[in-house]
Design goal:
The chain is mostly helical. The chain has one domain (about 5-150): Up-down Bundle (Glutathione S-transferase Yfyf (Class Pi), Chain A, domain 2), CATH 1.20.1050. About 45% of the residues lie in helices and about 5% in strands. It has a two-stranded parallel ribbon with strand order 1-2. The two termini are about 20 Å apart.
Length: about 160
């Protein structure tokens, strides 16, 4: 048995943050698949009414799909925030300087997912972030979330 077990699924940006950090530091860990999109407690009406869903989740995975006005609002917030990060990365290698920190690992949590899930192409729309993502990808131990955690395609353990 591994020293650490991470209950996760491939589409979770939050789980990816933890999985990537465990992988980058060479921890003895194993992913344990959580059927988030199946009949788990996370799918109950009470749970879903008490938790607000981020843009990517509402756009791609919520049933029924998110309200278009809410998606447009969230997309606008994402674009504004990414513009700030893109500007910051124009004159530095990583978010806080010339080497990666936990801030970089945390930011990658949602940025490696496909353009069709995001609704925009990260490298094209935010080139400094695209270059930073390539630097993150070059770190020893880096893996794409769909390769690092179980559940991609949806439902596959």
């Amino acid at each position: 048995m591994s020293e650490y077990q991470l209950y996760c699924f491939a589409q979770s940006g939050n789980a990816y943050r933890a999985a990537l950090m465990l992988n980058l530091i060479g921890a003895d860990w194993e992913p344990i698949w959580v059927d988030f999109f199946g009949a788990m407690v996370q799918r109950t009406p009470q749970y879903r009414s008490d938790v607000n869903g981020p843009f990517r989740f509402l756009k791609n995975f919520a049933k029924p799909a998110g309200d278009p006005a809410v998606l447009a609002f969230l997309k606008g917030r994402i674009d504004g925030n990414l513009a700030i990060v893109n500007k910051r990365l124009t004159d530095r290698q990583f978010l806080l300087g010339n080497r990666p920190t936990i801030a970089d690992v945390s930011m990658t949590g949602y940025l490696y997912y496909p353009a069709d899930e995001f609704g925009f192409d990260m490298a094209k729309d935010h080139p400094a972030i695209g270059a930073w993502l390539e630097r993150m990808k070059a770190l020893p131990g880096w893996k794409h979330p769909y390769d690092l955690m179980p559940g991609y395609p949806l439902g596959k353990k």
